[in-house]
Write a structure and sequence with these properties.
Helix content is 31%, strand content 18%. The chain contains 2 helices and 2 strands. The two termini are 16 Å apart. The chain has one domain. Strands 1-2 form a two-stranded antiparallel ribbon. It is α+β, with helices and mostly antiparallel strands and 55 residues long.
Length: 55
Amino acid sequence: MTAKHVLAEAGIPSISLDKMDSAHALPLGGSIELYVDASHADKAKEILQKEEILD
């Protein structure tokens, strides 16, 4: 399950920003940033830590 999916299931909308370098087709060759509204930030962090998606 993805972080975005977990947050959506909890009713927290999020926006993802893919920062993967398109010149590299490696599976882990970049990062994806996930943004939530500041009013949901603490709850989102708590949920993602509980699901062991976030340290």
